[in-house]
Structure formats: structure tokens, C-alpha cells
């Protein structure tokens, strides 16, 4: 009820602001685009062709009538006669248009990244396409970028133009013989992933962005999503049936914009699962890193203790926070999260923060940083409260904030995301987002965004069927706070083995990794040192060829001179795989420590160790819902003559 009331008030405000903010009014006020010519009425027009830097991804755009586009990957049509459109006060400006001659500009930019590797290269061709909406005379730009692994477009209007936007009519028509992996929880992305042949997708249902389409005959993968949202509501993908999806502002009615640049509508197109996992299109489309992060020594990835799943009631006590400081130190974790309940440590928030400061000082002595939980509903909506809250965090010695209960993609909440991250950065605070929208590249713009939930993680349960899918869907968008390794609580472990949960810690990328098991319990296990030494960011990530979406995910990841390997088997039966170690560096020897399923005592784990080299292979049996995880430690100083 509260949500509906607030939404109605925002919509009323938008309509009042939008009085007179029409396409025709903007056309009269701003006139024509400069230095642009449009074709005549009798001129024969062929679709305009665009291509990626390597020429393997091509797109075509109609130049008269409707803004229809088509996209091809290696000659295979992946998007057919789809539509770009935006409804401004009842007028669809994607219809009855003329398209002028686009300008073309190749671009290559390298930027630092975090997660799968340390740097990213944004290499694309940019096309600025002038468009005239004939009935109103409105002239605007469709900005198109084509990467080797993606196609994106957005509407760009001139500064000062004001509009009341009712809807977006943009569509995506996918091959009907493809297979779609999708979920329908558009609020939190915590639904179970489903699989359906695209021609039989349900109609009149919103699918969450990051829907993945597996092309027939192993020809590749296509993902639909959006990026770089600013003063604009988030979207879902409304299924119209027969493989056609439409942008749907699921959490918003009419909204008012000024100087509008819409979010990027992205079509990720990759030839292999390795290309998909390492795809940077979402971050490439995001705004570059803000200048305030030139000095970022305070942004430190790491693992965190978290008492909530193990001791939910006791986790609200100050003494539990102190205890987990010691546990985090014992396991070499960098952080400890003080979750919901700390506000009860004092009559006022100021008094409660004095107790938080005690916990933070105790943690600092042990070399541990403190993250403090906060619900967005209890103050952070409002600028004045945020300023006071961040000031108190800074004074208390807090390292970061876990912001919870977002669950919205209204224009207002999209703006709150950015303001919260920016103001947190001004106070040198890292941020973990809980129950948020889908990732849209914000961690590039604001590197203090360490991780986001937006995933069906261990807080629900460890579902082996989902963990064989999520690395190729949700994780493509960036870090996910999956909260792995809660093996002593059966309802969270589900049917997964302990080896499977160990694999989660390697495969489920999170720069801020919340380990949900009691750290003291972990310290007593045979894999304690494996977790103690486990990095949370990587120098290189390789998806191994044994991987099959929905069946098994097998990854090799490098940090420094060492390599890690992990596999997550689905719940579809036991599986034996042979993995060649040709991802290891040549000319080197390694010591392998491997943890795998105990086939005689499920869900326990066994350990073996021994020497390994690049030309070796390992054969491993995984139980249904099982897996394995291991570390290859480079033997210091040893070089093999080849």
C-alpha cells in the first residue's frame, strides 16, 4: 500500500512537471540539429549497415518509417526486425521517422577493472545516428555502439529538452529455436532460473534483465540487459510471446526528464561460455570512473565474517560483533559485518554509534574492518539523513556500509543509488548493496561499490541446479554477494556437498566476499588454509571446456603466480570429468591441493595433494550436487627446461 501511494505521488509530480513537455514543444523550442541533412521523400533508402571492430557482429537500421534494426553474429541472425521507440506524452518518436547519415568513430579505451581480471579494454565503433520524427519535427540522436561481443543503443536528446515519458516501445526479437534461461523476480533477481525454448516463453510476463539465449547448434549466446541508468527508471523485459521481448518500466508510471540520455539497451553476443563470462560490455557502456577515486587506497577487496545466517538472533548483540572480530582475525578475513540490530544498542542512533565505534576499535586492533548494515527505508532515502549517517560512520571508524531493502527501480531509487555511492565515497566508505536492482555497470563509475546481491544465493539455499547456471547469467553483470559456504545449516546447504560450496567461493565472483559460515568452525576444517588464502579478485579467468550451462560450471582462475580450479555440478546426477591442466603457465611446476566429494560420506569433503604441470590432467568424480575446488601453488624458483 505504501509503495503504491508513493508511486502515485511521484507520477502525479511527473505529470505536473511535464505539462507542455511534449515532442512538438521541444522541436519548436530547439529547432533542427546542426550540420545534419535528411533524405528527401522520393529518395530510395537502403538500411544503414554497421559492424564491430572485428567485422563479425553486424547490424542494420532502417532509414525511413520505423526504427527497425537487425543484428547478425558470424552471419547468424540473432535479432530480427526489432524496434527502437520511446513514447513522449502519447507520441511514439520511433515511428514516422527519417534517418540521416550517421557519423562513425572508432574508439579504444583501457581502464582498470576488478573481478575476473585487473584491466578492461573498451574497443568499439560508435555511430551517432540523426533522427527526425516527421509529425512533430523533433530531431534527436540514436547513439549506437558495436563491440566485438555486443550491440547497444540509446536515445540522446539535447541539453534542456524536457519530456514526460509514458513508455518505451523498444523490442528484441530473438531466434525462436534458441533456448532461454530466465527468471521473473524483477525486484531482487532472487527467483529460481528457468529454462524454456524461446518459441514457448510465457506471454504477458516480465522477465528480469540478463535473460540469456543459447543459440541452436552451439552457435553462441545472446543476453539482453541495460546499463548506465541516470535519472531514468530501470526496465524489465516484457514477454510478448514467440521470442519477442519489450522494454517495460515495471516499477514506474509516467516520468519526467530534462536533458535526457536514456540507458543503454544492450544485446550481448558471445561465441562461447568463456567469452560470455569475460564479457565487459555492461561495464564498457557505463560512465568512466569518477575523478574522486584517483586516491583509492581505502578501497580494499577482501573476505568478511557474517554472523547472521548462523546466529541470527545473537548476531544483533554487541558481544557477538566482538566475538566475530576475533573469528575474522583468526581466519585472516579483512572484514566483519555488523548486520541488522545494532540500532538497538542505544536509545538514539548517536548512542548506538558509540557502541559501533567500540566494535570498530576492537576490530582495528585485530586488523579487521567493520561494515555496518542499514535499511534504505530507515533514512538513506533522504539527503540530510545520509550526510549525518555518513558523518557518524566516519567518526566511528567504519570501513563500509551494507545498504539493504532497495527492491526498486523507480527513477527516484536509481538516483538514490548514485547519490549514496558518491556521498559514501566522499566519506571514504565502501558499499555493499543488498536486495538491489540488477547490476548496470555502476562499479566502474563508483569503484567503492564492492558487490551486490541481486542473486539467489545461500541466504535462500545453495541450489546446485542454479549454481550451474548463475555464473553464465547473473555473474556476467559483475560481482555477486552470494554469501557462500554455510555448510552447518542444512536448510542453507540444501542438496549441495561441501566441495560444491567450496567451489562457490572460487566461481561466484565477489570483491567483497561474505563467508556465511561461522569462521571459527571453518578454522577447524581441512580446507581452512584454502579459505584463509583465497583471493576475492583475480588476474585471469578461464571457463574450461567441460562447462555446460545448467549442467556444470568449471573455472580456472589466476592470482599472482598461483592458479585455482573449481567445478559446480548440478543436481542431475554424478559426473566424472577429466580436466587438462594446459591453462597453467608453461615451464613451471606446481603443488596441487584439491578438495573433492567424499563419495562414501556425503556431504563431506576429502583432500589430496601432489605435484602438477601444464601437460598433466586430472580425473575427478563429482557427486550429484557436488563439485571440487583446488589451488595450484607455484613452486618457488623452479623452472623446467623444455
The end-to-end distance, rounded to whole angstroms, is: 71 Å
CATH architecture descriptor name of the largest domain:
Distorted Sandwich
Number of domains: 3
Structural classification: alpha+beta
Overall morphology: globular
Q: What is Rg?
A: 25 Å
Low-confidence stretches: none
Percentage of residues in DSSP E strands: 25-35%
Number of strands: 38
Q: Could you name the CATH topology of the largest domain?
A: Beta-galactosidase, Chain A, domain 5
Percent range of helical residues = 10-25%
Total DSSP helices: 14
> Mind describing the biggest β-sheet?
11 strands, antiparallel
Please name the defining characteristics of this protein.
seven-stranded parallel beta sheet, alpha+beta, TIM Barrel, 14 helices, eleven-stranded antiparallel beta sheet, 3 domains, Beta-galactosidase, Chain A, domain 5, Immunoglobulin-like, single chain, about 650 residues
Give a structural overview.
With 642 residues, the chain is of the alpha+beta class. It folds into three domains: 11-285, Beta-galactosidase, Chain A, domain 5 (Distorted Sandwich); 291-537, Aldolase class I (TIM Barrel), CATH 3.20.20; 552-634, Immunoglobulin-like (Sandwich). The protein has 14 helices and 38 strands. Strands 3, 8, 9, 10, 11, 12, 15, 16, 18, 19 and 23 form an eleven-stranded antiparallel sheet that branches. A seven-stranded parallel sheet has the order 29-28-27-26-25-24-30. A six-stranded antiparallel sheet has the order 31-32-33-38-35-36. Helix 5 runs parallel beside helix 6 (349-365) and helix 7 (383-396) packs parallel to helix 8 (411-426). The longest helix has 17 residues, at 349-365. It is globular, with a radius of gyration of 25 Å. The termini are far apart.
Amino acid at each position: 500500500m505504501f509503495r503504491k501511494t508513493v508511486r502515485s505521488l511521484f507520477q502525479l509530480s511527473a505529470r505536473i512537471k511535464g505539462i507542455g513537455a511534449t515532442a512538438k514543444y521541444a522541436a519548436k523550442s530547439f529547432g533542427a540539429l546542426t550540420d545534419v541533412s535528411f533524405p528527401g521523400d522520393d529518395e530510395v533508402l537502403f538500411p544503414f549497415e554497421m559492424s564491430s571492430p572485428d567485422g563479425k557482429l553486424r547490424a542494420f537500421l532502417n532509414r525511413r518509417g520505423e526504427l527497425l534494426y537487425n543484428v547478425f553474429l558470424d552471419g547468424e541472425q540473432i535479432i530480427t526486425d526489432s524496434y527502437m521507440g520511446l513514447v513522449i506524452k502519447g507520441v511514439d518518436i520511433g515511428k514516422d521517422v527519417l534517418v540521416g547519415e550517421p557519423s562513425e568513430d572508432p574508439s579504444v579505451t583501457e581502464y582498470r577493472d576488478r573481478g575476473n581480471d585487473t584491466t578492461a579494454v573498451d574497443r568499439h565503433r560508435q555511430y551517432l545516428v540523426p533522427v527526425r520524427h516527421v509529425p512533430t519535427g523533433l530531431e534527436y540522436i540514436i547513439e549506437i555502439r558495436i563491440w566485438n561481443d555486443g550491440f547497444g543503443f540509446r536515445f540522446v536528446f539535447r541539453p534542456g529538452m524536457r519530456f514526460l515519458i509514458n513508455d518505451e516501445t523498444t523490442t528484441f526479437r530473438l531466434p525462436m529455436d534458441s533456448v532461454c534461461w530466465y527468471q521473473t523476480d524483477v525486484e531482487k533477481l532472487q527467483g529460481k532460473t528457468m529454462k524454456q525454448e524461446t518459441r514457448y516463453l510465457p506471454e504477458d510476463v516480465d522477465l528480469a534483465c540478463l535473460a540469456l539465449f543459447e543459440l541452436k547448434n552451439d552457435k553462441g549466446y545472446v543476453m539482453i540487459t541495460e546499463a548506465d541508468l541516470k535519472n531514468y527508471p530501470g526496465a524489465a523485459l516484457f514477454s510478448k510471446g514467440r521470442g519477442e521481448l519489450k522494454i517495460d518500466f515495471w516499477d514506474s508510471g509516467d516520468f519526467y526528464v530534462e536533458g535526457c540520455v536514456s540507458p543503454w539497451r544492450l544485446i550481448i553476443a558471445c561465441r562461447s561460455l568463456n567469452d560470455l563470462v569475460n564479457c565487459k560490455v555492461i561495464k564498457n557502456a557505463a560512465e568512466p570512473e569518477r575523478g574522486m577515486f584517483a586516491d583509492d587506497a581505502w578501497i580494499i577487496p577482501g573476505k568478511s565474517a557474517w554472523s547472521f545466517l548462523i546466529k541470527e538472533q545473537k548476531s544483533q548483540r554487541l558481544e557477538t560483533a566482538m566475538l566475530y572480530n576475533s573469528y575474522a582475525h583468526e581466519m585472516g578475513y579483512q572484514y566483519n559485518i555488523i548486520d541488522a540490530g545494532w540500532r538497538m544498542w542505544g536509545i538514539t542512533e548517536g548512542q548506538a554509534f558509540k557502541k559501533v565505534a567500540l566494535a570498530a576499535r576492537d576490530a582495528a586492533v585485530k586488523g579487521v574492518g567493520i561494515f555496518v548494515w542499514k535499511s534504505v527505508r530507515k533514512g538513506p532515502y533522504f539527503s540530510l539523513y545520509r550526510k549525518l549517517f555518513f558523518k557518524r560512520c566516519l567518526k566511528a571508524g567504519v570501513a563500509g556500509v551494507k545498504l539493504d531493502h532497495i527492491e526498486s527501480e523507480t527513477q527516484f531509487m536509481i538516483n538514490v543509488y548514485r547519490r549514496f555511492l558518491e556521498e559514501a565515497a566522499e566519506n571514504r566508505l565502501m558499499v555493499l548493496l543488498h536486495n538491489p536492482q540488477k547490476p548496470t555497470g555502476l562499479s566502474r563509475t563508483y569503484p567503492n561499490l564492492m558487490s551486490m546481491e541481486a542473486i539467489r544465493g545461500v541466504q535462500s539455499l545453495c541450489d546446485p541446479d542454479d549454481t550451474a547456471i548463475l555464473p553464465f547469467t547473473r555473474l556476467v553483470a559483475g560481482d555477486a554477494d552470494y554469501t557462500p559456504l554455510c555448510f552447518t545449516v542444512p536448510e542453507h546447504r540444501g542438496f549441495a556437498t561441501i566441495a560444491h560450496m567450496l567451489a562457490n567461493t572460487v566461481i561466484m565472483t565477489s570483491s567483497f566476499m561474505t563467508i556465511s559460515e561461522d569462521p571459527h568452525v571453518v578454522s577447524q576444517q581441512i580446507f581452512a588454509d584454502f579459505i584463509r588464502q583465497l583471493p576475492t579478485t583475480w588476474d585471469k579467468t578461464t571457463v574450461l571446456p567441460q562447462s555446460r550451462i545448467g549442467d556444470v560450471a568449471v573455472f580456472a582462475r589466476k592470482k599472482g603466480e598461483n592458479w585455482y580450479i573449481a567445478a559446480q555440478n548440478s543436481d542431475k546426477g554424478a559426473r566424472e570429468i577429466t580436466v587438462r591442466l594446459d591453462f597453467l603457465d608453461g615451464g613451471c611446476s606446481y603443488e596441487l591441493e584439491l578438495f573433492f566429494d567424499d563419495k562414501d560420506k556425503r556431504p563431506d569433503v576429502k583432500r589430496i595433494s601432489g605435484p602438477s604441470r601444464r601437460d598433466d590432467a586430472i580425473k575427478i568424480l563429482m557427486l550429484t550436487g557436488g563439485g571440487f575446488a583446488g589451488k595450484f601453488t607455484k613452486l618457488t624458483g623452479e623452472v623446467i627446461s623444455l
